[in-house]
Amino acid sequence: MSDKDADSVILFYKGNYYNRSSAALRICLLLGGMWQLLFVLIIIPRFIRNFFYGIIARNRYKWFGKKEECMIPSPELLQIYLNKKIIPVSYICSKFEV
């Protein structure tokens, strides 16, 4: 894994590391429900997915705003992560430096 990869979301799941769009899509699959429908985008070549992932990542604060504090997951959301054994290496919060 390169230093460039560490500047993105990273998922460690069942002994494998996933980054960028692959991590985001795999997290959607693991969350289940309507989120798992997005996993169909995995058929798009990685370089194309990562191009759009980069655009979204660079503009997310402009489009969706920025929080001063990290979200504390609800007990229901926390249980989903714990049941699925999802271990996010990087957390979606700009206050934490990895």
Break the fold down into its secondary structure elements and pairings.
Layout: E1 10-13, E2 16-19, H1 20-31, H2 46-64, H3 75-84, E3 87-88
Antiparallel strand pairs: 1-2, 1-3
Notes on the structure:
- The protein has a three-stranded antiparallel beta sheet with strand order 2-1-3, with helices on one face.
- It has one domain (5-88).
- Strand 1 and strand 2 (16-19) form a beta hairpin.
- By secondary structure, it is mainly alpha-helical.
- The protein is 42% helix and 10% strand.
- It is globular and about 35 Å long.
Number of domains: 1
> What is the overall number of helices?
3
Distance between the termini: 14 Å
Class from helix and strand fractions? mainly alpha
Could you give the order of the helices and strands?
A: EEHHHE
Shape category: globular
Could you name the key traits of this structure?
disordered C terminus; 98 residues; 3 helices; 10% strand; mainly alpha
Compact description:
With 98 residues, this protein is mainly alpha-helical. Helix content is 42%, strand content 10%.
